[in-house]
Amino acid sequence: MNETVHVAITRQVKPGYEDRFEDAIRRFFVETLEDSGSLGAQLIHPLPKTNSRTYGILRSFASEQDRDRFYRSDRFRDWEQAVQPFVENTYERRNLHGLEAFFSNPGLMRHPPRWKMALVTWAGVWPSVFAVSSLAAPRLSGWPSWLATGAVTLIVVLVLTWGVMPLLTRLVRPWLTMPTEKQSITKR
């Protein structure tokens, strides 16, 4: 069974080449949306009013095979060659699994602790399930319970994916990225 694969890439852009890099990657995104198995891509800009030149790229694929085919393709190699004058030589690419896809932060090398991710996820799931269940209950009262549950969970997943979790993770980002006591000790 194939499972959607999310990949996070961080690229360091050379000073003064930010606009050229952004133009090149937008064109590349449009070209590669036609690729079989490519489910989408997103560019994450460095935070405003910082000196960071680190860009995040999130790509989604229908399967691991589609991901591997994409990164072995001539199209990808050609793009890497074309963008080389705009970027530093090294970059990081890694797969995101489960909750990590919601909590990706290209400016950081690690994700928040799992307990923080679980707490924020719960804070998004609980009100979403309550609201969707309350609103949908009158409309689904005649449905078999298994089908009503399926409809409610489908709506909750859509609401979480495109609304609640992106907003919630943006709101609590400072807390999520704040080092825990254990992380603070190991950095000294």
Characterization of the model:
The chain is of the alpha+beta class. It folds into 2 domains: 5-101, Alpha-Beta Plaits (2-Layer Sandwich), CATH 3.30.70.100; 114-187, no CATH class. The protein is 53% helix and 18% strand. The protein is built from 7 helices and 4 strands; from the N terminus they run E-H-E-E-H-H-E-H-H-H-H. It has helices at residues 18-32, 64-72, 74-83, 114-140, 145-171, 173-177, 181-187; strands at 5-13, 38-44, 54-61, 87-96. The termini are far apart. 14% of the residues are buried.
What are the SSEs and their pairings?
Elements: E1 5-13, H1 18-32, E2 38-44, E3 54-61, H2 64-72, H3 74-83, E4 87-96, H4 114-140, H5 145-171, H6 173-177, H7 181-187
Antiparallel strand pairs: 1-3, 1-4, 2-3
Helix pairs in contact: 1-3, 4-5
- Which strands sit side by side, in order, in the main sheet? 2-3-1-4
Order of helices and strands: EHEEHHEHHHH
Shape from CA axes?
globular
Count helical runs: 7
Structural class: alpha+beta
Can you name the CATH architecture of the largest domain? 2-Layer Sandwich
User: At the third CATH level, what is the topology name of the largest domain?
Assistant: Alpha-Beta Plaits
Biggest sheet, open or closed, and with what strands and sense? Answer: 4 strands, antiparallel
Number of strands: 4
Quote the distance from N terminus to C terminus.
45 Å
Number of domains: 2
Question: Which features characterize this protein?
Answer:
Alpha-Beta Plaits; 4-stranded antiparallel β-sheet; 188 residues; 7 helices; alpha+beta; 4 strands; disordered C terminus
